[in-house]
Recover the amino acids of this structure.
Protein backbone atom coordinates (compact mmCIF):
# COMPACT_ATOMS: atom_id res chain seq x y z
CA UNK A 1 0.00 0.00 0.00
CA UNK A 2 1.32 3.44 -0.82
CA UNK A 3 1.73 5.60 2.22
CA UNK A 4 -1.28 7.25 3.85
CA UNK A 5 0.66 10.52 4.17
CA UNK A 6 2.61 12.93 1.99
CA UNK A 7 4.18 15.19 4.59
CA UNK A 8 5.17 15.18 8.27
CA UNK A 9 1.80 16.55 9.35
CA UNK A 10 0.09 13.70 7.52
CA UNK A 11 2.32 11.15 9.22
CA UNK A 12 1.54 12.66 12.63
CA UNK A 13 -2.17 12.45 11.80
CA UNK A 14 -1.76 8.79 10.82
CA UNK A 15 -0.04 8.09 14.16
CA UNK A 16 -2.89 9.77 16.03
CA UNK A 17 -5.53 7.60 14.31
CA UNK A 18 -4.04 4.16 14.90
CA UNK A 19 -6.05 1.15 16.13
CA UNK A 20 -5.76 -0.39 19.58
CA UNK A 21 -5.53 -4.05 20.56
CA UNK A 22 -8.77 -6.07 20.64
CA UNK A 23 -9.91 -6.06 24.30
CA UNK A 24 -12.26 -9.02 23.80
CA UNK A 25 -9.52 -11.23 22.34
CA UNK A 26 -7.14 -10.05 25.05
CA UNK A 27 -9.58 -11.03 27.82
CA UNK A 28 -10.36 -14.37 26.15
CA UNK A 29 -6.66 -15.22 25.77
CA UNK A 30 -6.03 -14.25 29.39
CA UNK A 31 -8.89 -16.48 30.55
CA UNK A 32 -7.69 -19.36 28.39
CA UNK A 33 -4.14 -18.98 29.71
CA UNK A 34 -5.52 -19.35 33.23
CA UNK A 35 -7.04 -22.75 32.37
CA UNK A 36 -4.02 -24.38 30.71
CA UNK A 37 -2.33 -27.44 32.17
CA UNK A 38 0.49 -25.78 34.11
CA UNK A 39 0.85 -24.13 37.49
CA UNK A 40 -0.36 -20.53 37.24
CA UNK A 41 2.41 -18.32 35.86
CA UNK A 42 4.76 -21.25 35.24
CA UNK A 43 5.47 -20.16 31.67
CA UNK A 44 6.72 -16.88 33.06
CA UNK A 45 6.90 -13.98 30.65
CA UNK A 46 5.88 -16.22 27.74
CA UNK A 47 2.35 -15.99 29.10
CA UNK A 48 2.09 -12.19 28.90
CA UNK A 49 3.85 -12.27 25.52
CA UNK A 50 1.29 -14.68 24.05
CA UNK A 51 -1.68 -12.80 25.55
CA UNK A 52 -0.34 -9.50 24.18
CA UNK A 53 0.06 -11.13 20.76
CA UNK A 54 -3.50 -12.53 20.87
CA UNK A 55 -4.87 -9.08 21.66
CA UNK A 56 -3.18 -7.52 18.64
CA UNK A 57 -4.17 -10.37 16.31
CA UNK A 58 -7.76 -10.21 17.57
CA UNK A 59 -8.08 -13.92 18.33
CA UNK A 60 -7.93 -16.02 21.48
CA UNK A 61 -5.85 -18.77 19.83
CA UNK A 62 -3.48 -17.14 17.33
CA UNK A 63 -0.66 -18.74 15.34
CA UNK A 64 2.65 -17.32 14.11
CA UNK A 65 3.16 -18.65 10.58
CA UNK A 66 4.28 -15.68 8.46
CA UNK A 67 7.07 -13.70 10.13
CA UNK A 68 8.50 -10.89 8.00
CA UNK A 69 11.97 -9.39 8.50
CA UNK A 70 12.86 -6.18 6.70
CA UNK A 71 16.38 -4.76 6.75
CA UNK A 72 16.78 -1.10 5.80
CA UNK A 73 20.17 0.35 4.94
CA UNK A 74 21.26 3.98 4.98
CA UNK A 75 24.40 6.09 5.04
CA UNK A 76 25.22 8.94 7.40
CA UNK A 77 27.00 12.26 6.87
CA UNK A 78 28.52 12.06 10.34
CA UNK A 79 30.41 8.90 9.31
CA UNK A 80 32.98 11.20 7.63
CA UNK A 81 33.98 12.48 11.08
CA UNK A 82 35.41 9.10 12.11
CA UNK A 83 32.64 7.94 14.46
CA UNK A 84 32.71 4.27 13.39
CA UNK A 85 35.33 1.52 13.44
CA UNK A 86 34.38 0.72 9.82
CA UNK A 87 34.32 2.78 6.61
CA UNK A 88 30.99 3.90 5.13
CA UNK A 89 31.45 1.62 2.06
CA UNK A 90 30.62 -1.32 4.34
CA UNK A 91 26.94 -0.36 4.29
CA UNK A 92 26.60 -1.06 0.55
CA UNK A 93 28.92 -4.08 0.78
CA UNK A 94 26.75 -5.61 3.49
CA UNK A 95 23.61 -4.99 1.40
CA UNK A 96 25.21 -7.19 -1.28
CA UNK A 97 26.02 -9.75 1.40
CA UNK A 98 22.34 -9.74 2.51
CA UNK A 99 21.29 -10.19 -1.11
CA UNK A 100 23.68 -13.13 -1.53
CA UNK A 101 22.51 -14.82 1.68
CA UNK A 102 25.81 -14.47 3.55
CA UNK A 103 24.92 -12.36 6.58
CA UNK A 104 23.83 -13.44 10.05
CA UNK A 105 20.28 -12.25 9.40
CA UNK A 106 19.99 -14.55 6.37
CA UNK A 107 20.74 -17.57 8.56
CA UNK A 108 18.40 -16.42 11.33
CA UNK A 109 15.55 -15.68 8.91
CA UNK A 110 15.91 -19.20 7.50
CA UNK A 111 16.12 -20.73 10.96
CA UNK A 112 12.91 -19.08 12.17
CA UNK A 113 10.93 -19.41 8.93
CA UNK A 114 10.80 -15.69 8.16
CA UNK A 115 10.79 -13.90 4.82
CA UNK A 116 13.62 -11.38 4.46
CA UNK A 117 13.40 -8.16 2.44
CA UNK A 118 16.26 -5.72 2.06
CA UNK A 119 15.79 -2.05 1.16
CA UNK A 120 18.82 0.14 0.46
CA UNK A 121 17.89 3.82 0.82
CA UNK A 122 19.91 6.23 -1.37
CA UNK A 123 23.25 4.82 -0.21
CA UNK A 124 25.15 7.08 -2.61
CA UNK A 125 23.58 10.10 -0.92
CA UNK A 126 24.41 10.05 2.78
CA UNK A 127 22.32 12.23 5.07
CA UNK A 128 23.71 15.66 5.90
CA UNK A 129 26.16 15.85 8.82
CA UNK A 130 23.82 16.68 11.71
CA UNK A 131 26.50 18.70 13.53
CA UNK A 132 26.01 21.42 10.92
CA UNK A 133 22.50 20.92 9.44
CA UNK A 134 19.40 18.73 9.81
CA UNK A 135 20.21 15.20 8.58
CA UNK A 136 17.23 15.23 6.21
CA UNK A 137 14.82 17.61 4.55
CA UNK A 138 11.12 17.01 5.12
CA UNK A 139 10.86 15.46 1.64
CA UNK A 140 13.76 13.07 2.38
CA UNK A 141 12.28 12.07 5.71
CA UNK A 142 8.84 11.46 4.21
CA UNK A 143 10.34 9.42 1.35
CA UNK A 144 12.13 7.17 3.86
CA UNK A 145 9.05 6.85 6.10
CA UNK A 146 7.06 5.92 2.99
CA UNK A 147 9.58 3.26 1.95
CA UNK A 148 9.18 1.67 5.35
CA UNK A 149 5.39 1.96 5.30
CA UNK A 150 5.14 0.33 1.87
CA UNK A 151 7.61 -2.46 2.69
CA UNK A 152 5.33 -4.15 5.23
CA UNK A 153 3.51 -7.26 3.99
CA UNK A 154 -0.13 -7.02 5.11
CA UNK A 155 -0.22 -10.84 5.22
CA UNK A 156 2.62 -11.07 7.74
CA UNK A 157 1.73 -12.03 11.31
CA UNK A 158 4.80 -10.64 13.07
CA UNK A 159 7.25 -7.99 11.90
CA UNK A 160 10.96 -7.52 12.56
CA UNK A 161 12.67 -4.37 11.33
CA UNK A 162 16.43 -4.31 11.22
CA UNK A 163 19.08 -1.97 9.89
CA UNK A 164 22.53 -1.62 8.42
CA UNK A 165 24.22 1.77 8.42
CA UNK A 166 27.78 2.68 9.27
CA UNK A 167 27.60 5.58 11.75
CA UNK A 168 24.04 4.93 12.84
CA UNK A 169 24.81 4.36 16.53
CA UNK A 170 25.87 8.03 16.54
CA UNK A 171 22.43 8.98 15.24
CA UNK A 172 20.71 6.69 17.72
CA UNK A 173 22.70 8.15 20.64
CA UNK A 174 21.87 11.70 19.56
CA UNK A 175 18.16 10.85 19.28
CA UNK A 176 18.19 9.34 22.77
CA UNK A 177 19.96 12.33 24.29
CA UNK A 178 17.60 14.76 22.55
CA UNK A 179 14.41 12.84 23.38
CA UNK A 180 15.14 11.32 26.79
CA UNK A 181 17.69 13.83 28.17
CA UNK A 182 21.02 13.39 29.93
CA UNK A 183 24.54 14.00 28.77
CA UNK A 184 25.82 12.87 25.36
CA UNK A 185 28.42 10.64 27.06
CA UNK A 186 25.69 8.58 28.75
CA UNK A 187 24.21 7.61 25.39
CA UNK A 188 27.39 7.22 23.35
CA UNK A 189 29.00 3.78 23.11
CA UNK A 190 31.47 1.94 20.94
CA UNK A 191 29.06 0.76 18.22
CA UNK A 192 31.05 -1.45 15.84
CA UNK A 193 34.05 -1.03 18.18
CA UNK A 194 35.59 2.45 18.01
CA UNK A 195 38.75 2.96 20.05
CA UNK A 196 39.09 5.57 22.80
CA UNK A 197 40.01 8.35 20.35
CA UNK A 198 37.01 7.46 18.18
CA UNK A 199 34.72 7.41 21.20
CA UNK A 200 35.87 10.90 22.12
CA UNK A 201 35.09 12.20 18.61
CA UNK A 202 31.75 10.38 18.62
CA UNK A 203 30.73 11.83 21.99
CA UNK A 204 31.60 15.32 20.76
CA UNK A 205 29.58 14.76 17.57
CA UNK A 206 26.55 13.61 19.59
CA UNK A 207 26.90 16.58 21.95
CA UNK A 208 27.18 19.06 19.05
CA UNK A 209 24.19 17.55 17.28
CA UNK A 210 22.04 17.68 20.37
CA UNK A 211 23.10 21.28 21.07
CA UNK A 212 22.10 22.29 17.55
CA UNK A 213 18.80 20.40 17.27
CA UNK A 214 17.29 19.42 20.64
CA UNK A 215 14.18 21.27 21.82
CA UNK A 216 13.27 22.15 18.24
CA UNK A 217 10.32 19.81 17.85
CA UNK A 218 8.77 16.45 18.61
CA UNK A 219 10.09 12.93 18.00
CA UNK A 220 9.40 13.10 14.29
CA UNK A 221 11.26 16.40 13.93
CA UNK A 222 14.21 14.92 15.86
CA UNK A 223 14.13 11.93 13.49
CA UNK A 224 14.47 14.39 10.59
CA UNK A 225 17.25 16.37 12.25
CA UNK A 226 19.32 13.63 13.96
CA UNK A 227 18.15 10.38 12.37
CA UNK A 228 18.89 8.66 9.12
CA UNK A 229 17.01 7.14 6.24
CA UNK A 230 17.12 3.59 7.61
CA UNK A 231 15.89 4.78 11.00
CA UNK A 232 13.05 6.67 9.33
CA UNK A 233 12.14 3.63 7.24
CA UNK A 234 12.03 1.50 10.39
CA UNK A 235 9.75 4.10 12.00
CA UNK A 236 7.49 4.06 8.91
CA UNK A 237 7.30 0.27 8.96
CA UNK A 238 6.54 0.16 12.69
CA UNK A 239 3.72 2.67 12.16
CA UNK A 240 2.35 0.72 9.19
CA UNK A 241 2.40 -2.46 11.28
CA UNK A 242 0.27 -0.72 13.90
CA UNK A 243 -2.29 0.21 11.25
CA UNK A 244 -2.49 -3.52 10.41
CA UNK A 245 -2.58 -4.60 14.08
CA UNK A 246 0.62 -6.43 13.28
CA UNK A 247 2.87 -7.00 16.32
CA UNK A 248 6.49 -5.87 16.02
CA UNK A 249 9.57 -7.31 17.72
CA UNK A 250 12.04 -4.49 18.32
CA UNK A 251 15.72 -5.22 17.75
CA UNK A 252 18.72 -3.40 19.22
CA UNK A 253 19.94 0.12 19.93
CA UNK A 254 19.25 1.69 16.54
CA UNK A 255 15.88 0.04 15.97
CA UNK A 256 14.78 1.11 19.45
CA UNK A 257 15.94 4.69 18.83
CA UNK A 258 13.82 4.77 15.66
CA UNK A 259 10.86 3.45 17.67
CA UNK A 260 11.51 6.04 20.40
CA UNK A 261 10.89 8.84 17.90
CA UNK A 262 7.36 7.47 17.34
CA UNK A 263 6.61 7.23 21.05
CA UNK A 264 7.84 10.81 21.53
CA UNK A 265 5.54 11.93 18.71
CA UNK A 266 2.46 10.02 19.82
CA UNK A 267 2.33 8.43 23.29
CA UNK A 268 1.32 4.78 23.06
CA UNK A 269 2.59 4.43 19.48
CA UNK A 270 4.66 1.39 20.52
CA UNK A 271 1.97 -0.60 22.32
CA UNK A 272 2.12 -3.17 19.51
CA UNK A 273 5.89 -3.58 19.97
CA UNK A 274 7.82 -5.91 22.28
CA UNK A 275 11.51 -5.56 23.12
CA UNK A 276 13.36 -8.65 21.89
CA UNK A 277 16.70 -8.22 23.57
CA UNK A 278 19.00 -5.78 25.27
CA UNK A 279 22.06 -4.97 23.21
CA UNK A 280 25.65 -4.93 24.46
CA UNK A 281 25.63 -1.24 23.43
CA UNK A 282 25.36 0.04 27.02
CA UNK A 283 22.81 2.79 26.30
CA UNK A 284 20.24 0.35 24.97
CA UNK A 285 19.15 -0.68 28.49
CA UNK A 286 18.28 2.87 29.62
CA UNK A 287 16.57 3.52 26.29
CA UNK A 288 14.32 0.49 26.81
CA UNK A 289 13.72 1.62 30.39
CA UNK A 290 12.65 5.05 29.12
CA UNK A 291 10.11 3.25 26.93
CA UNK A 292 8.93 1.03 29.78
CA UNK A 293 9.88 -2.10 27.80
CA UNK A 294 11.53 -5.17 29.36
CA UNK A 295 13.69 -7.12 26.90
CA UNK A 296 12.92 -10.81 26.40
CA UNK A 297 16.60 -11.77 26.15
CA UNK A 298 20.08 -10.56 27.02
CA UNK A 299 22.66 -12.21 24.76
CA UNK A 300 25.32 -9.48 24.43
CA UNK A 301 24.39 -9.03 20.76
CA UNK A 302 25.48 -5.79 19.09
CA UNK A 303 25.03 -6.68 15.46
CA UNK A 304 21.82 -5.00 14.34
CA UNK A 305 20.31 -6.34 11.06
CA UNK A 306 17.25 -7.35 13.12
CA UNK A 307 19.25 -10.28 14.48
CA UNK A 308 18.06 -10.18 18.10
CA UNK A 309 14.45 -9.71 17.03
CA UNK A 310 14.76 -12.61 14.58
CA UNK A 311 15.78 -14.82 17.52
CA UNK A 312 12.76 -13.54 19.42
CA UNK A 313 10.49 -14.87 16.64
CA UNK A 314 11.40 -18.28 18.05
CA UNK A 315 10.47 -17.18 21.56
CA UNK A 316 7.18 -15.72 20.31
CA UNK A 317 6.37 -18.84 18.31
CA UNK A 318 6.95 -20.94 21.43
CA UNK A 319 4.81 -18.67 23.60
CA UNK A 320 1.93 -18.61 21.11
CA UNK A 321 2.12 -22.37 20.46
CA UNK A 322 1.63 -22.98 24.19
CA UNK A 323 -1.30 -20.56 24.50
CA UNK A 324 -3.06 -21.92 21.43
CA UNK A 325 -2.12 -25.59 21.58
CA UNK A 326 -2.08 -26.64 25.22
CA UNK A 327 -4.99 -28.55 26.74
CA UNK A 328 -6.98 -27.05 29.59
CA UNK A 329 -7.21 -28.85 32.94
CA UNK A 330 -10.79 -29.87 32.04
CA UNK A 331 -9.85 -31.16 28.57
CA UNK A 332 -6.91 -33.20 29.87
CA UNK A 333 -8.59 -34.47 33.03
CA UNK A 334 -5.78 -33.05 35.15
CA UNK A 335 -6.73 -32.04 38.71
CA UNK A 336 -6.79 -28.28 39.23
CA UNK A 337 -5.17 -26.71 42.31
O1 LIG B 1 21.69 -3.29 17.22
C1 LIG B 1 22.58 -2.86 17.98
O2 LIG B 1 22.39 -2.74 19.20
C2 LIG B 1 23.90 -2.43 17.38
C3 LIG B 1 24.91 -1.98 18.22
C4 LIG B 1 26.12 -1.62 17.64
C5 LIG B 1 26.29 -1.67 16.26
N1 LIG B 1 25.28 -2.10 15.46
C6 LIG B 1 25.45 -2.16 13.99
O3 LIG B 1 26.68 -1.54 13.63
C7 LIG B 1 26.49 -0.47 12.73
C8 LIG B 1 26.60 0.85 13.43
O4 LIG B 1 27.77 0.94 14.21
P1 LIG B 1 28.68 2.26 14.06
O5 LIG B 1 29.86 1.98 14.94
O6 LIG B 1 29.07 2.32 12.60
O7 LIG B 1 27.84 3.39 14.50
C9 LIG B 1 25.10 -0.64 12.15
O8 LIG B 1 25.17 -1.29 10.91
C10 LIG B 1 24.37 -1.46 13.20
O9 LIG B 1 23.54 -2.41 12.58
C11 LIG B 1 24.12 -2.50 16.00
C1 LIG C 1 30.63 -6.18 8.93
C2 LIG C 1 29.43 -5.49 9.54
C3 LIG C 1 28.17 -6.13 9.54
C4 LIG C 1 27.07 -5.48 10.11
N1 LIG C 1 25.80 -5.81 10.23
C5 LIG C 1 25.15 -4.82 10.84
N2 LIG C 1 26.01 -3.86 11.11
C6 LIG C 1 27.22 -4.22 10.69
C7 LIG C 1 28.45 -3.57 10.69
C8 LIG C 1 29.56 -4.21 10.14
C9 LIG C 1 30.88 -3.51 10.16
Amino acid sequence: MTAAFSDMAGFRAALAAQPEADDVALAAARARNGQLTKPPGALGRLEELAIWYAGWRGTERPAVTHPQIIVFAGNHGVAAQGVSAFPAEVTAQMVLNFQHGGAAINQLAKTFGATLDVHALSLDHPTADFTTAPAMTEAELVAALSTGWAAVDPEADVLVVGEMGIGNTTSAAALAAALVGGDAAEWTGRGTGVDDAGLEIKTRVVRDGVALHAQKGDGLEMLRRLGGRELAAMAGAIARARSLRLPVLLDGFICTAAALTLEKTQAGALDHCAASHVSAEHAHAPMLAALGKTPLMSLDLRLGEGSGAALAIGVLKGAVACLSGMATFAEAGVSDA
Notes: The radius of gyration is 20 Å. Strands lie at 67-73, 115-120, 158-164, 248-250, 273-275. Residues 83 and 202 are 5 Å apart (CA to CA). The first strand starts at residue 67 and ends at 73.
